[in-house]
Amino acid sequence: MIEGTVNADFEAVIPVTIQGPSGQTRTVDAVVDTGFNQFLTLPPRLVAELGVVSAGTAPILLADGSEVTMEIYQVTLLWDGLPRRIDVYAAESISFVGMRLLRGHSLHIDVLAGGRVAIDALA
Q1: Which helix (H) or strand (E) holds 16?
Q2: Which residue in 56, 78, 91, 113 is a FRET match for 69, CA 20 to 30 A apart?
C-alpha cells in the first residue's frame, strides 16, 4: 500500500522514490493527477542530480489543449516496495503521478485537508 495525504490546496500527494543508474535514491512528493495519462513527471534538476540520460523527446497534450515537447527519461521507481522501470517526463513544475502508473491499483482519497490518500494493488 502507498499512503499520502491531501494538502491544504486539496491535492492528493504521495511520496515517490526514484533510483538513479548508480543506485542513488531521492524521494519527492508527487501530486496524483487523474488527467495525466502517463507515468510520472519530475523536475529537470532532480533528473540531473540522479544522472539519468535522456531517452528522447515526445509531444505531450496539456490540459489547456496546447502541445509541448518534453524530454523523456527511463528511471527505476520504487513502487509499493518493488522496483519498476518507467518513463519520466521532465517538467518545470511540481511532480505528478499519472494514471499509467496507477494502472492495476485502486485509489482512495478522503477529500479534506489532511485527508488520507491510499493506493492499493488490485488482486
Answers
A1: strand 12-19
A2: 78
